[in-house]
Amino acid sequence: MNANTIKKELNTYLPLLTVKQQQLLLEMVKNILQVEPTEKRISVKQYNDELNASIKQGKEGKTISHKQMLKEMEKW
Prior knowledge:
Layout: H1 3-13, H2 19-33, H3 44-59, H4 66-74
């Protein structure tokens, strides 16, 4: 897919989003652009360790509801 096709497709979808969704998308793009080019990828082991820790937290009931998460996101 070339750059023009991508731009056209983005321009097609953007108006379909709510203002809040557009704001979230803009923040995601800004965050992506702020990534350090020298940032190193994590190892597969570290990824799996973090994934397993998250699964453990879920099993222990250390979670929040979707509604609570939306409230947290409003603070970002």
